[in-house]
């Protein structure tokens, strides 16, 4: 049962092929290079190296956001179209959950974190679970200072992601000894972890993405938020995850 | 056509706010043409919002492709190629079509072709009757205003382009200044029918013999005219303003299009793009072409606005010429035509 997993939701380009949860091959690059140019050649190359044809794939997993809007869309659109073209299911997993998997053995809680600009972060609180990681506090876009206030007094927390390092001083300032940080390798999401998470969800009977499915950006487009605000609707800036 | 061509091409177009897919046989035979317009979504913003457009494309793209194949009664295996708009356009929007086309090509083994959006617009005419070469095409829409020369199939030479606003963009901007609903083009066209074009507005001819366009000065002139008359307490009839503005745009478009045909010594003029819906432009161009002995071709409206059939048609001739793209093809916002 061969699965293809693709993640282009951050600077990291990740492609992995798994067979029933066993990793057959993986490519991870971490460069300021164009995902649109590199994703499909990387998929094609990896499958060729593994002597696999697209027709041998039985499902596709994608990191469905949050992250860079454009990056998330390139991965989601490519994965969705491959899945539809091959007549196989697509499973979308939170890009934050994929990163949280890198803290699998941490004896505490895990905070994956992506910069969302203007001092805000895409984040959520994860805990270890038999099949991987599970969400303890909903994913959100939130000002980093508010988020740290909310995390006070929870005990040891592992912060993951390159962007977490950028906020290191502020995190240490609020949480002190409770704050832990990942190794460089643990700050880079892995498509193999994405594939494993998706495979676990599939075994648990999760539904594949619907035909008109879309990524989970965790926030509205700016123009839409402004428009809603003007209608006196609040704009739902901190819309919670539906995943 | 020297060579005969057997082909069945799937076209995908997502350069702006239409998610579209179509199937075209042998470069001209329309098998299906599916368009999911986002007009209603963008209306409340008064224009196309790129991020909103890109989000909508992702949701719709595979369903639209599926519908295009279903309506054409063809399977993925029947296809000779998948052709997609590579540019120009909104880069985030283009990326959805390009990503989808590449993924489709990889999964099915169907060869991939990148198509220039303007080339697509010209080929809209070919879906109605065969293009006759050499020809000149005036492509005018909300995104572009260009004069293109084609000596034969799949060969393009740009003669002129807008240096600032596109013609359709000028219509939309002026409509906004006049408090007309979005999109403004049809409303100005309608309103102009009740007015007289007597208001003094400039015609931007640029350098002698230039085939380029410029519409931003005209837009400023409209704003100034409204502003000054307001200050002097004089009321300007909106219908007269619409008629005068439209007359200025149309006069320049017609004159430069005819000038281009003369410079190239051709007697075929193809009108393309959404602005060809404008009734004043159609009438003026038809009348002028008749005087000049030029054959004017204007495709029906549903093929003038953005669609994927035109992309499939243009892509068919790239297929004929073996111009395929690799899986590393990227969307290019300002892709040159050549
Ligand atoms: Zn167009």
Automatic annotation (TrEMBL), chain A:
<dbReference type="GO" id="GO:0005829">
    <property type="term" value="C:cytosol"/>
</dbReference>
<dbReference type="InterPro" id="IPR000905">
    <property type="entry name" value="Gcp-like_dom"/>
</dbReference>
<feature type="domain" description="Gcp-like">
    <location>
        <begin position="31"/>
        <end position="227"/>
    </location>
</feature>
<dbReference type="InterPro" id="IPR022496">
    <property type="entry name" value="T6A_TsaB"/>
</dbReference>
<protein>
    <submittedName>
        <fullName>tRNA threonylcarbamoyladenosine biosynthesis protein TsaB</fullName>
    </submittedName>
</protein>
<dbReference type="Pfam" id="PF00814">
    <property type="entry name" value="TsaD"/>
</dbReference>
<dbReference type="InterPro" id="IPR043129">
    <property type="entry name" value="ATPase_NBD"/>
</dbReference>
<dbReference type="GO" id="GO:0002949">
    <property type="term" value="P:tRNA threonylcarbamoyladenosine modification"/>
</dbReference>
UniProtKB/TrEMBL annotation, chain B:
<keyword id="KW-0479">Metal-binding</keyword>
<feature type="binding site">
    <location>
        <position position="189"/>
    </location>
    <ligand>
        <name>substrate</name>
    </ligand>
</feature>
<dbReference type="InterPro" id="IPR022450">
    <property type="entry name" value="TsaD"/>
</dbReference>
<feature type="binding site">
    <location>
        <position position="185"/>
    </location>
    <ligand>
        <name>substrate</name>
    </ligand>
</feature>
<keyword id="KW-0963">Cytoplasm</keyword>
<feature type="binding site">
    <location>
        <position position="172"/>
    </location>
    <ligand>
        <name>substrate</name>
    </ligand>
</feature>
<keyword id="KW-0819">tRNA processing</keyword>
<feature type="binding site">
    <location>
        <position position="117"/>
    </location>
    <ligand>
        <name>Fe cation</name>
    </ligand>
</feature>
<dbReference type="InterPro" id="IPR017861">
    <property type="entry name" value="KAE1/TsaD"/>
</dbReference>
<feature type="domain" description="Gcp-like">
    <location>
        <begin position="32"/>
        <end position="312"/>
    </location>
</feature>
<dbReference type="Pfam" id="PF00814">
    <property type="entry name" value="TsaD"/>
</dbReference>
<feature type="binding site">
    <location>
        <position position="121"/>
    </location>
    <ligand>
        <name>Fe cation</name>
    </ligand>
</feature>
<keyword id="KW-0408">Iron</keyword>
<dbReference type="GO" id="GO:0005506">
    <property type="term" value="F:iron ion binding"/>
</dbReference>
<keyword id="KW-0012">Acyltransferase</keyword>
<feature type="binding site">
    <location>
        <begin position="139"/>
        <end position="143"/>
    </location>
    <ligand>
        <name>substrate</name>
    </ligand>
</feature>
<feature type="binding site">
    <location>
        <position position="278"/>
    </location>
    <ligand>
        <name>substrate</name>
    </ligand>
</feature>
<feature type="binding site">
    <location>
        <position position="306"/>
    </location>
    <ligand>
        <name>Fe cation</name>
    </ligand>
</feature>
<dbReference type="GO" id="GO:0061711">
    <property type="term" value="F:tRNA N(6)-L-threonylcarbamoyladenine synthase activity"/>
</dbReference>
<dbReference type="InterPro" id="IPR000905">
    <property type="entry name" value="Gcp-like_dom"/>
</dbReference>
<comment type="similarity">
    <text>Belongs to the KAE1 / TsaD family.</text>
</comment>
<protein>
    <recommendedName>
        <fullName>tRNA N6-adenosine threonylcarbamoyltransferase</fullName>
        <ecNumber>2.3.1.234</ecNumber>
    </recommendedName>
</protein>
């Amino acid at each position: 049962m061969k699965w293809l997993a693709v993640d282009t939701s951050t600077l990291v380009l990740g492609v992995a092929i798994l067979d029933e949860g066993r990793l057959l091959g993986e490519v991870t690059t971490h460069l300021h290079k164009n995902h649109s140019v590199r994703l499909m050649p990387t998929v094609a190359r990896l499958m060729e190296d593994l002597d696999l044809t697209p027709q041998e794939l039985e499902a596709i997993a994608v990191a469905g956001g949050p992250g860079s809007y454009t990056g998330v869309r390139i991965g989601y659109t490519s994965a969705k179209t491959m899945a539809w073209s091959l007549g196989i299911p697509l499973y979308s997993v939170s890009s934050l959950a994929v990163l949280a998997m890198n803290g699998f053995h941490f004896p505490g809680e895990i905070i994956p974190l992506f910069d969302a600009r203007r001092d805000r972060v895409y984040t959520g609180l994860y805990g270890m679970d038999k099949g991987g990681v599970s969400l303890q506090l909903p994913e959100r876009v939130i000002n980093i200072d508010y988020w740290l206030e909310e995390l006070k007094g929870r005990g040891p927390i592992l912060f993951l992601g390159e962007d977490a390092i950028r906020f290191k001083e502020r995190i240490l300032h609020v949480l002190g000894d409770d704050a832990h940080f990942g190794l460089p390798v643990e700050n880079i999401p892995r498509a193999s972890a994405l594939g494993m998470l998706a495979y676990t969800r599939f075994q648990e009977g999760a539904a594949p993405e619907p035909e008109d499915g879309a990524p989970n950006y965790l926030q509205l487009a700016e123009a839409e938020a402004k428009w809603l605000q003007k209608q006196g609707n609040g704009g739902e800036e901190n819309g919670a995850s539906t995943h | 056509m020297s060579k005969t061509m057997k082909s069945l091409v799937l076209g995908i177009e997502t350069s702006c706010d239409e998610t579209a897919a179509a199937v075209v046989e042998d470069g001209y035979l329309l098998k299906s043409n599916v368009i999911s317009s986002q007009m209603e979504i963008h209306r409340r913003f008064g224009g196309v919002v790129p991020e909103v457009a890109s989000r909508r494309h992702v949701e719709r793209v595979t369903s639209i492709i599926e519908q295009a194949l279903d309506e054409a009664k063809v399977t993925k295996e029947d296809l000779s190629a998948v052709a997609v708009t590579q540019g120009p356009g909104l880069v985030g929007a283009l990326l959805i079509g390009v990503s989808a086309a590449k993924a489709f090509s990889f999964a099915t083994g169907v060869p991939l072709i990148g198509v220039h959006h303007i080339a697509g617009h010209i080929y809209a005419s070919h879906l109605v009757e065969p293009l006759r070469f050499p020809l000149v095409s005036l492509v005018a829409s909300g995104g572009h205003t260009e004069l293109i020369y084609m000596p034969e199939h799949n060969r393009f030479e740009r003669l002129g382009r807008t240096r600032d606003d596109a013609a359709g963009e000028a219509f939309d901007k002026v409509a906004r200044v006049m408090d007309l609903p979005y999109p403004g083009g049809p409303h100005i066209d309608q309103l102009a029918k009740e007015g007289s074009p007597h208001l003094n507005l400039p015609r931007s001819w640029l350098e002698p013999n230039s085939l380029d366009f410029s519409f931003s000065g005209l837009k400023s002139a409209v704003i100034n005219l409204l502003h000054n008359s307001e200050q002097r307490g004089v009321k300007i009839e909106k219908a007269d303003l619409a008629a005068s503005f439209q007359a200025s745009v149309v006069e320049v478009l017609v004159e430069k299009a005819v000038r281009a045909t003369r410079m190239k010594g051709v007697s075929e003029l193809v009108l393309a793009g959404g602005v060809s819906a404008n009734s004043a432009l159609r009438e003026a161009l038809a009348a002028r072409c008749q005087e000049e002995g030029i054959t004017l071709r204007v495709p029906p409206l549903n093929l003038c606005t953005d669609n994927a059939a035109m992309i499939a048609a243009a892509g068919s001739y790239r297929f004929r010429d073996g111009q395929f793209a690799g899986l590393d093809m990227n969307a290019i916002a300002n892709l040159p035509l050549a």
